[in-house]
């Protein structure tokens, strides 16, 4: 058998630069085999043309090409259950250690724990690192060690700790990889997918955008947001470098990044929130769950132009402006009294930047059943929101071509009556 090697497992960190676990693996003194595993548990529920799978595959292929042309190495593609894949790898190589970056979602934690136990039985080390966030798990906690469940005090503590923390830089030289280019490769077809017609756009984070972010970010017709979400979700950029770049220009943008970390630690400490309300009493809400009304919401034919514009943008592009996400979510949960989990699942199937912690956290915030939630009586008025954030109807006209014509549907529910119905439903809870 060949000489001992280490394995670096790409997951939500699809980059060579400033990658914590990759850097640690390269400093191990053993040749490093980079791998990626297309996990059926994750893939099987997705549409066969899922744009995120196309993006992941293209990103990994680019990394593989770079490793082959610049470093005489490569990146091995595998398809299967992670434990089964590692058993195959162990038949081909003498592996002494596995390196990977932390993932905080419930399935990932279960997967990693099962792998760790098996590796212990094989006397193989499993080294994992913090990379997806700046602060994780218990690093931002109350003085008694309990997790924060309100954003504002969490943000204040986060910033206080950050002021006294020197962020690591893992821009290590790429050397010490396994010198083998003929590693397994899989096409999209090999894993049961085909190329999506949607593409993940590049992000924008220049000084001009950041300086104007606070004043522009709430207007969906403006190009005032970064489109950074998918790149943070899949780790094609370093959160450490992004935060340092933003810090010089926009405290408001930095606060949005801290929201991401807040929801990440909430999911870590309270994994039940994947499926259940953080505030358990709200699981007693008597949702109407009208399937016809839900379908109209999904299609963007509610008769409320701003809601419909948002849903049509999502369906066409895999993106929806954040302000409009709040409005569409509020409409589903509070105007139609449809379970937030239905909407969360629909967003999960469509959003290019889908992240479980943020998606679940934001949906529960809007529905009023989560941590740091908007109170149950906060019900967005789509008409008032339009007047405030799209008063010239530029965004609406972009996505709702038949708006203001005889073919556009009447509102499917009266706002005043829907609000009163919502309050009656939530108040007993």
Question: What does it look like?
Answer:
GO terms for molecular function: deoxyribodipyrimidine photo-lyase activity; DNA binding; FAD binding. One of its GO terms (biological process) is nucleobase-containing compound metabolic process. Its cofactor is FAD; (6R)-5,10-methylene-5,6,7,8-tetrahydrofolate. The record marks 287, 340, 363 as: Electron transfer via tryptophanyl radical. This is Deoxyribodipyrimidine photo-lyase. The chain is α/β, with parallel strands linked by helices. It folds into 3 domains: 1-132, HUPs (Rossmann fold), CATH 3.40.50.620; 133-168 and 202-269, Serine Threonine Protein Phosphatase 5, Tetratricopeptide repeat (Alpha Horseshoe), CATH 1.25.40; 276-426, DNA Cyclobutane Dipyrimidine Photolyase, subunit A, domain 3 (Orthogonal Bundle), CATH 1.10.579. It contains 18 helices and 5 strands. The protein has helices spanning 20-26, 40-43, 51-71, 82-92, 106-121, 151-163, 207-216, 229-233, 239-247, 251-269, 291-299, 305-317, 322-335, 340-350, 356-367, 382-389, 394-399, 415-426; strands spanning 5-10, 32-38, 76-79, 95-101, 125-129. A 5-stranded parallel β-sheet has the order 3-2-1-4-5, sandwiched between helices. Helix 12 (305-317) crosses helix 13. The mean pLDDT is 96.
